[in-house]
Fold these 2 entries.
Entry 1:
Amino acid sequence: MKILAVESSCDETAVAIVEDGRRVLSDAVASQIEMHTIYGGVVPEIASRKHLEAICLMADQALEQAGLERRDLDAVACTYAPGLIGAVLVGVNFAKSVAYALNLPLIPVHHIRGHIAANYITHPALEPPFLCLCVSGGNTMIVDVQDYTRMELLGATRDDAAGECFDKVARVLGIGYPGGGPMDRLAQGGDEKKYPLPRSKVDGAPLDMSFSGLKTAALNTIHNASQKGEALDLPSFAASFGQAVSDELVPRVLQAAQMTGRRRIAAAGGVSANSRIRGDLQRMCALHGYELYLPELKLCGDNGAMIGAQGYYEYLAGHVADSTLNGYAGRRIDE
Ligand code: KG4
């Protein structure tokens, strides 16, 4: 089954064609990062307008890369939530039009379920059940993937997402947008113990996380140094910050595995590209004998292929939308 998959929830306009949930025939992406860099973050209206400009071209490119015609498609999938609402609506409306014009089934896909499904592309043998640490620019959660379309949210951030936190600190340091990648590179060779930064604990909810205190403490460290005219040891600061984020995540994944008895652990989302988090997950899994599945780097961030992968399993479960499908800024993963 060949699915044309559309992703437009943030700042990438992506259209892919995926066969039977696992084989990526094409993956066309138009990134808007250059445009948003001028403003130091995503400007929602600009994002929506850029999606509108790029989406037909990306669909044509996806067909061309795959060597397919429109009549070869079997279904259309799209991210319908969560995301910047104007941006999501562009993709939903485009997918609806394609489904209507070609008389194809329309499959709504939850964006974070898509991120999880990126692992099915990288690891063809991976099947549920497993635990997944989902860490992106807008979401941070630990999910029990009981089946391809049955998920339970075990814990989530109470405030900022991990990626948002990386982006904010990087912006104040003036090292670029989005900031996670530059912070990761800057941290190489730094001393992660040099700058003391807080770790959170949420009373009564051991798997929930909080990043706002860490973000404030990191920003205070930068401002204090600048007020005193002291130079920060940037690699060590980035390493200390990266370690604090990883310490917020990895021990909770371990706790979730111990609570649920799951032996397979995966990660997903843009922040799962982080070398420290990947390393800490690898060490933790090796120590406790868990199998670890990490998406290849190019599938960590937003892409269309992941929506095509999850779309296939949503279709098999009968999750097909009619022409009244809408988009949503927020939607639980386990709805
Ligand atoms: O999954 P994604 O592409 O978009 C959302 O669905 O939100 O994630 C983007 C986030 C950004 O916050 C970016 O700074 C972060 O992923 N990111 C990283 C790294 N690469 C991207 N964060 C930490 N380390 C990285 N290497």
Entry 2:
Amino acid sequence: MKIMKKVYLETFGCQMNVSDSERVATTLAAAGFEMTADEGSADVVLFNTCSVREKAEHKLYTRVGQVRNSIGENGEIRAKPIVGILGCVAQLEGETLFKKADGVDFVLGTQAVGRVARAIEDVENGKKQVADLAAREENYDWMTSPAQRHSPYVAFLPIIEGCNKFCTYCIVPFSRGRERSLPATEIVRQARVLREQGIRELHLIGQNVNSYRPKTLEGLENVPGATAFSKLLRAVAATGIERIKFTTSFPRDFHADIVEALNEHENLCNWVHLPVQSGSNRILKAMRRGHTVESYLEKIDRIKNSPRRIALSTDVIVGYPTETEADFAETMRLFEYCQFDSAYMFKYSPRPGTPAAALTDDVSLAEKTERFLRLEAIQKASVRQSLEAMRGRTVGVLAEKKSARAKSEYSGHTACHKVVNFYSEKAENEVLGTIVPVTITKTKSNTLYGEVC
Ligand code: 5AD
Ligand code: SF4
């Protein structure tokens, strides 16, 4: 009997990386490998990496060191597994990773991940320091297999890869290359397959989903909408998948027709993620974001004034080079105005090779931390308010997981992407994967609690 080689795959960073990892696992399983959650027993250890901030990159080097020097349960030194680095750090560092992180056997860039089985084979055949940073193969298979997805009920579907925006602080255009949109016919085909496989919630993902621009409008010819993206939203809505979410949206390309589509189709979920990055026009210009505070707020007002209540979330960076107290005060003011349902907040982190990295990082770490905490306090109050507003309401919750702590406790998301915990006495297989009507009774930090009604 052939012994299956075991692969442990660890993923850092964004949903795009989670999605790439699902495809890597799908490819490897088809090539006869067994995916394992137990790092200690793995023959191959893979890291799918993130380079968006310095912290994630440092973590990778720590993890490679741990794998290299792994000690078994009885104190024995374990044979080193084959170690492969995939994704953004691999793309940016290439062969220098072999010097920076001792013990790395191969490096696969963001578009080379589909060739992972071949890279492992090359190393097994004695090749040293295998590096592949080339473009995607022609016949790349975008479909993930159910067994390798992060959830049996929620699926990620990349509709656009890469980024053309070149915000001055951001490494993504370098790590993921130019924007490439998947044909609409392929997206709709996959959405249908996912629905048949039991997926209840589909996330259309991309660095900037609303910059979606396929080579042709094939498949969207007869769909209403002013832009390719809103046409696509409607076409995917027509597949009948119960919930469709999309992230991330780029403010400059966020047009009225997206809100219109959300109002027309109940299964397009009422949640928009629109990163603002700063509330100061001077800083936004320095970042080359392509939007102003005024143009951003116009979009926020449109979303907030929509007939359907739409939840809002954002990303923000504090302490960009030259950010003054006055600039930061404008960010706080914008947050007070927008009352985001949630926000991802980051301290500016210089990324080598980006235009901003050439500037003096003149906001001290202490100052960044101080600003971060002040903004966080404002945001926490918004979150509290947005959760409190849910109390007493009955909402549909997709039961995604059983709680590890409490018996009969489940956890999942609302259509507006809030986490809800609830109790149900029903059998697990009757609850998981269904959309349960839950009345919200309690709120706690970032979570809602409720009872099945
Ligand atoms: N420093 C801090 N935060 C960053 N982001 C991107 N690049 C940087 C950086 N150099 C944040 C932005 C982006 C999110 C994914 O990460 O807010 O929207
Ligand atoms: Fe980075 Fe700007 Fe592209 Fe977002 S839009 S990935 S912040 S360059």
